[in-house]
Amino acid sequence: MEHEMRAEYEEGVSPQQEGATVKIWHMVRLGGTTAMCGRELDPAAATQPADAWGTPKGEPFCHSCGALYLREVP
Fold first, then answer.
1. Is pLDDT of 74 > 80?
2. How many CA atoms lie within 13 A of 56 on its CB side?
3. Whole-prediction pTM value?
């Protein structure tokens, strides 16, 4: 199964807003908007490849998503 990272923003902040910063990164199944931890994410939120997980580009990262992701990755 393929995955990607999707951003979560502060409450009330739209991904399209100028200066919107990422609150936390979550792992989703490729093209999905439901994080592995169960949080629903904005379909317009920024994404990045799953291989950014564990690197500075992927921080801060949801610990719950990380634990579940490790269980799925071969």
1. no
2. 0
3. 0.92
